[in-house]
Amino acid sequence: MDEEVLVVESEEGFIFNLPFSLYKRLAAEADLEREGVHPRVVRDMFGNKRTLLRTDRNKGLEIRAWLSLVVSEKHNSYFITEVEELKAQK
Predict the structure, then answer these.
(1) At the top level of its lineage, which domain of life is listed (predicted)?
(2) How far apart are CA 84 and CA 50, in angstroms?
(3) Is residue 1 scored above 70 in pLDDT?
(4) Which CATH number, 3.30.70, 1.10.287, 3.60.21, 3.40.190, labels domain 3-84?
(5) Which residues in the chain belong to E strands, given as ranges?
(6) Are 89 and 16 a contacting pair, CB within 8 Å?
(7) Cα(13)–Cα(73) distance, integer angstroms
(8) What pLDDT does residue 26 have?
(9) pLDDT tens across 17-72, in order?
(10) Confidence grade of residue 75 (pLDDT, cut at 50, 70, 90)
């Protein structure tokens, strides 16, 4: 079963919701905590471990590019959904 990588872009930065297995691979290649990115591990509605990452804009662009490369080249079991945050008009 394919697993979703959710990327939410806002004015302040990015939020990533990715499978824990993919996060472990990302963490092995980059020291995110040293760079100020602190993961939060949660469980989805099926009990699977997922990782939430909140980043600033620059770090988010780096992670998004890395995810695009890894998912397209090596992992057919993941797919990426990208959305932008919308602000309500007053």
Answers:
(1) Archaea
(2) 20
(3) no
(4) 3.30.70
(5) 3-9, 13-19, 40-43, 49-56, 78-84
(6) no
(7) 25
(8) 81
(9) 999 988 888 887 777 777 778 899 999 999 999 999 999 999 999 999 988 988 88
(10) low
| 19-23, long-range: CB < 8 A, 24+ apart | 19/48, 19/49, 19/50, 19/51, 19/78, 20/48, 20/49, 20/50, 20/51, 22/67, 22/70, 22/75, 22/78, 23/51, 23/53
Q: Which DSSP state fits 25?
A: H
pLDDT at 4 over 80: yes
